[in-house]
């Protein structure tokens, strides 16, 4: 793991190619509001989904307050399939420190629940 990134720094690079913002909250919480352009991979699904991050130049993990995302960033950084020069960071202060608007899931993105079916 390469440390933490501030919300301001993340906002400045959010639209760049190669930047992947991974929100580790449950899908229902993500659907209620998330950083625009982020993707939801709940913490419990990271071990099975980390393959999807191969090829990313920079991965930033996000949680409500910047604590669980540190563990998630360490997990992602330990994955051998990630490029050696990829930067893996946690969003300092999490969503609580995000200065911009949060995006809510649209109705065509499916139900905003954590139900398994």
Automatic annotation (TrEMBL):
Q: Name one Pfam family in it.
A: Rhodanese
Question: What are the transmembrane regions?
Answer: none
* Organism this protein belongs to: Halobacterium litoreum
Task: Give the start-end ranges of region Disordered.
Answer: 98-117
According to the UniProt entry, the coiled-coil residues are none
Name all Rhodanese domain ranges. Answer: 15-104
SUPFAM superfamilies reported in the protein's UniProt record: Rhodanese/Cell cycle control phosphatase
Name of the protein in its database record = Rhodanese-like domain-containing protein
InterPro entries (UniProt xref)? GlpE_sulfurtransferase, Rhodanese-like_dom, Rhodanese-like_dom_sf
Superkingdom is: Archaea
């Amino acid at each position: 793991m390469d440390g933490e990134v501030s919300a301001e720094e993340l906002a400045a690079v959010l639209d760049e190619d190669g930047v992947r913002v991974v929100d580790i909250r449950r899908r229902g919480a993500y659907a209620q509001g998330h950083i625009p352009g982020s993707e939801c991979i709940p913490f419990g699904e990271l071990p099975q989904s980390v393959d999807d991050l191969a090829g990313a130049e920079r991965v930033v993990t996000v949680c409500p307050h910047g604590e669980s995302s540190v563990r998630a960033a360490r997990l992602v950084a330990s994955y051998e399939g990630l490029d050696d020069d990829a930067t893996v960071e946690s969003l300092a202060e999490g969503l609580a420190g995000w200065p911009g608007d949060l995006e809510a899931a649209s109705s065509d993105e499916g139900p905003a629940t954590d139900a398994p079916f």
